[in-house]
UniProtKB/TrEMBL annotation:
Source domain of life: Eukaryota
Signal peptide: none
Listed PANTHER family: DEHYDROGENASE, PUTATIVE (AFU_ORTHOLOGUE AFUA_2G13270)-RELATED, PTHR45033
Organism: Xylaria bambusicola
The protein's name: Enoyl reductase (ER) domain-containing protein
Domain Enoyl reductase (ER) as annotated: residue spans: 91-432
One Pfam short name: ADH_N
GO molecular function: oxidoreductase activity
Length: 434
């Protein structure tokens, strides 16, 4: 590490707290992105005695980075864990794209009822892209990014007797908090949140080497999955499961289901779940290559949604004995209602888990007259998460991986994963292996 100090000299491997309260060290890492290393050498001072309002007052995450740097400074042979966040940047709201920011942190210690998980892989979601664009509420510049993580339990905190069996076991992080089992939605919306990059969850995010989590906020990972495949599953698997199984009302053999925007993680997971349940699956995409790949996975057919007459083309693909769609699972919004009303059976269902094309959708009178139902679907409960993982285990489903990057400190390469997502290049999940 390249160390830059004031003129004060270290004594007995410590900088006297009476001489300086804080040193800022800027280090260049191989990817040429800076890490701000804040060293608070007044750490020995009781927290209650620090001046209110002074610069030495720090958040929990800042204190962790401070202590981590004290250790790394005087023990250069020690490898410190990393945490990947975003860095605040001024600019017009429409132009904001927060840069990634790598920190050194302390290895956490599990408290009562907690497990310490050594993360081995984490996956991106569109939510993370929205956070970088400041299109998501309660953004935090200190909380690690990413909701989806695979890791191994390396330590069990006090009071976790019921979770002792998880020690040294591979687990998946539950991506959201505050939703136990209610099929209609979170029991208390004011306490519902998604981990990674936001204020309500503080240190909770998958883009770090170690994480302490509540013992009930992990599930054993199916043994047939690799770390990358495990990390790819939580958010997209849960979202797809609820949108298809809980909300569409048509997750049954022989039903005709349309999945829009094939290539993204949720759409692909919906396709895989539908096929495993015996449904006839159809897809839309802007890319014929992606449609061809979906057909190789088992889709009955697919259409290019940029073609104005795609509903007519899709109609011709439906089986003669069931010449209609039973349900649509959609993550784009836009004109999906007007485009699919003629295709859907009376009382058909559109299960919508996202609106990437805009914040509103057009509702038409023909949809009303045909008794079409539009159902919103957001992630899912802990109970649905458990059901989804058991289904993946039973059917030995493997999430589709588009591309991986090795190393949480390879920030430029991770930025490239975000570029893939922005350009809609991916066919499957984008994963960081640690």
């Amino acid at each position: 590490m390249d160390k830059s100090f004031t003129s004060h000299e270290a004594k007995d491997n410590m900088i006297p707290t009476t001489l300086i309260s804080q040193i800022v060290i800027l280090q260049r890492v191989p990817n040429q992105l800076p890490i701000d290393l804040f060293i608070d050498v007044s750490k020995a001072m009781p927290w209650s005695q620090r001046r209110q309002g002074s610069r030495v007052r720090q958040s929990r995450q800042e204190r962790s980075r401070t202590s981590a740097l004290n250790i790394a400074l005087w023990n250069p042979s020690i490898i410190m864990p990393h945490s990947l966040t975003i860095r605040q940047k001024k600019g017009k709201a429409s132009d904001i794209y927060y840069p990634l920011y790598l920190h050194l942190v302390l290895k956490p210690t599990p408290g009562p009822g907690e497990l310490l998980v050594k993360l081995e892989a984490a996956a991106l979601n569109h939510r993370d892209l929205f956070i970088r664009k400041h299109l998501y509420p309660d953004i935090s510049f200190e909380t690690p990014l990413l909701s989806d993580g695979y890791g191994v339990v390396v330590e069990v905190g006090p009071g976790c007797a019921s979770s002792d069996h998880l020690l040294h076991q591979a687990v998946l992080l539950t991506p959201c908090r505050g939703w136990k089992s209610d099929p209609n939605g979170p029991e208390d919306y004011s306490h519902f949140s998604v981990i990674g990059g936001t204020e309500p969850n503080h240190h909770l995010g998958a883009a770090q080497n170690y994480i302490c989590v509540d013992q009930f906020e992990v599930e054993p990972c199916p043994r047939h999955l690799s770390p990358a495949e495990g990390a790819a599953l939580p958010s997209c698997g849960l979202t797809a499961w609820r949108a298809l199984v809980t909300k569409s009302g048509n997750a049954e053999p022989g039903r005709n289901i349309l999945v829009t925007g094939i290539g993204g993680g949720v759409a692909l997971q919906t396709l895989q779940f539908g096929l495993a349940l015996g449904c006839n699956m159809y897809v839309t995409s802007s890319s014929q290559e992606k449609i061809d790949k979906a057909r190789q996975l088992g889709a009955k057919g697919g259409v290019i949604y940029k073609n104005e007459n795609w509903p007519t083309t899709l109609q011709k693909m439906l089986p003669a004995e069931r010449h209609f769609l039973d349900a649509v699972v959609d993550g784009a919004g836009g004109n999906i209602i007007t485009k699919t009303t003629a295709l859907l059976k009376p009382g058909g269902i559109i299960s919508c888990y996202g609106m990437t094309m805009g914040p509103s959708m057009e509702w038409s009178m023909p949809a009303v007259l045909k008794n079409i139902e539009l159902r919103g679907s957001t992630l899912g409960s802990r109970s649905e998460f458990r059901d989804m993982i058991n289904f993946v285990k039973t059917k030995e489903i493997r999430p589709i991986i588009s591309r991986t990057v090795k190393g949480l400190d390879c920030v430029d390469a991770i930025d490239g994963l975000f570029d893939d997502m922005k350009a809609a290049k991916q066919f499957g999940k984008l994963v960081i292996e640690m």
